[in-house]
């Protein structure tokens, strides 16, 4: 499945991420700037913060409680904020669009 990361300046980076991998792992494998994944995907660092495009929010789901707590430490948090290590790729997310948070860029 394909995910498009959009930088704060509007530059788009479409990448393929295999099913079962997290969006954060896919970003790291493709050297997407602004997604660091410092904790290795354990919902414990907040450096994989993204904004999920409106039309995808239903399919990615909402922040878990643990994720919500961790996001308290991230900058620029909004309603559509997610930690993308907590979004697992599957065919239903093919075409997903996420925006990289300005504060991390
Ligand atoms: Fe650390 Fe997602 S990689 S919270």
TrEMBL record:
InterPro entries: 2Fe-2S_ferredoxin-like_sf, 2Fe-2S_ferredoxin-type, Adrenodoxin-like, Beta-grasp_dom_sf. It holds the Pfam family Fer2. It comes from the Bacteria. Its cofactor is [2Fe-2S] cluster. PROSITE patterns: 2FE2S_FER_2. Residues 1-104 form the 2Fe-2S ferredoxin-type domain. Keywords: 2Fe-2S, Iron, Iron-sulfur, Metal-binding. Belongs to the adrenodoxin/putidaredoxin family. PANTHER family: FERREDOXIN-2, MITOCHONDRIAL, FERREDOXIN/ADRENODOXIN. This is (2Fe-2S) ferredoxin. It comes from Sphingomonas psychrolutea.
């Amino acid at each position: 499945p394909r995910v498009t990361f959009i930088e704060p300046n509007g530059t788009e980076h479409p990448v393929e991420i295999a099913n079962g991998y997290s969006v954060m792992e896919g970003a790291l494998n493709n050297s997407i700037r602004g997604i660091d994944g410092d904790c290795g995907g354990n919902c414990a660092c907040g450096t994989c913060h993204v904004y999920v495009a409106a039309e995808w929010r239903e399919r990615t789901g909402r922040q878990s409680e643990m994720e919500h707590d961790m996001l308290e430490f991230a900058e620029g948090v909004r309603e559509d904020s997610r930690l993308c290590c907590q979004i697992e790729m599957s065919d239903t997310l093919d075409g997903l669009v996420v925006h990289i948070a300005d504060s991390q860029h």
